[in-house]
Amino acid sequence: MKPKTKRIFSANNDFQRVEVLKRNREKRNKYQQFFVEGVKAINYALEYNWPIQWFVYSREKPLSAWAEEILRQSQAELHLELPYQLMVQLSEKEAETSELIAVVGMVPHELSRIRLQDDLLVVVFDRPASHGNLGTLIRSCEALKVDALIITGHAVDLYDPKTIRASMGTFFAVPTFRLPSHHEVLPWLAKVRTKFPAFQIVGATAKAALPVDEADLTKPTALLIGNETYGLSNNYQESCDLLVRIPMYGAITSFNVACAASIILYETNRQRRKFDRN
Predict the structure, then answer these.
(1) Biggest alpha carbon–alpha carbon distance for the chain
(2) What pLDDT is recorded for position 96?
(3) How far apart are CA 64 and CA 30, in angstroms?
(4) Can you list the domains of the chain with their CATH numbers?
(5) SS3 per residue for the chain
(6) What are residue 175's phi and psi, to 5 degrees?
(7) Handedness of CA 180, 35, 146, 214 (dihedral sign)
(8) Which residues of 84-121 are buried (b: 16+ CB within 10 A; e: fewer)?
(9) Which candidate, 189, 246, 181, places its Cα nearest to that of 221?
(10) How are beta strands 242-245 and 200-204 bridged, if at all?
């Protein structure tokens, strides 16, 4: 079905709907929609078949061939055409106003959507407090063959534009789930173990005795990562089969959480590639 095109000339209700999705977590949850801009992010959203419901743009300046082609092939419900100055108000890009802004629908958060396989690798990030760390971890998950990322507890918003921007668009490539607490995650992990008896739950903490390169990460694994300030909670630590640390030198006592998770994911991938060659 061809999208409906609607041209507006002032900051009316349609404009305000897009603007509030950019800045208000409560409204994003209410409408089950979120704000996306940037070429990489929109390309990823299209590639991974996310439900783009609106495209927002202005024709007061010529659009690029990229933008025109996306609009030509669009299956969105609505194309919202704005004055250029309203696009300037919406866009969060520093150097140049975005050509296209997308309003994208959220997807369900049932863990049953995670595809279970014998080389399963899932990351659980408890109470992330930084959009930058969450977005960076999503990038590492996409690069290092993570099957799913689960976020638990009181955390920054997965759908905040700052998270999506920090992920460089890989947000759309990594199946990511947000859940209230460990209470929803631990029963699912137990079900995974019934399917794969070798499945292990590995917690990352600087206080662990076992260096990460001495752990066997070739098994199906869930990697548990704690909050930036407080680390891995007792509830999660008690559920782990083993706890690992990254060997460190110097006076600093811990890595940045996204950096630490990325190092462990690289070590996991390194071991698995070596195992596949043998």
Answers:
(1) 65
(2) 87
(3) 33
(4) 4-105 (3.30.1330.30), 111-277 (3.40.1280.10)
(5) CCCEEEECCCCCHHHHHHHHHHHCHHHHHHHCEEEEECHHHHHHHHHCCCCEEEEEECCCCCCCHHHHHHHHHCCCCEEEECCHHHHHHHCCCCCCCCCCEEEEECCCCCHHHCCCCCCCEEEEEECCCCHHHHHHHHHHHHHCCCCEEEEECCCCCCCCHHHHHHCCCHHHCCCEEEECCHHHHHHHHHHHHHHCCCCEEEEECCCCCEEHHHCCCCCCEEEEECECCCECCHHHHHHCCEEEECCCCCCCCCCCHHHHHHHHHHHHHHHHHHHHHC
(6) -60, 115
(7) negative
(8) eebbeebbeeeeebbbbbbbbebeeeebeebeeeeebb
(9) 189
(10) parallel
Cβ pair 137, 258 in contact under 8 A: yes
> Distance between CA atoms of 179 and 63, rounded to whole angstroms?
40
Residue listed under structure tokens 């704005």: 82
pLDDT band at 278 (very low <50, low <70, confident <90, very high): low
Contact by Cβ (8 Å): 215, 242: yes
pLDDT in tens, 254-267: 789 999 999 999 99
User: What pTM does this model have?
Assistant: 0.93
CB 187 within 8 A of CB 162: no
Q: Which of 218, 224, 217 is nearest to 203 (CA)?
A: 224
Q: Is 196 exposed, middle or buried (0-12, 13-18, 19+ CB in 10 A)?
A: middle
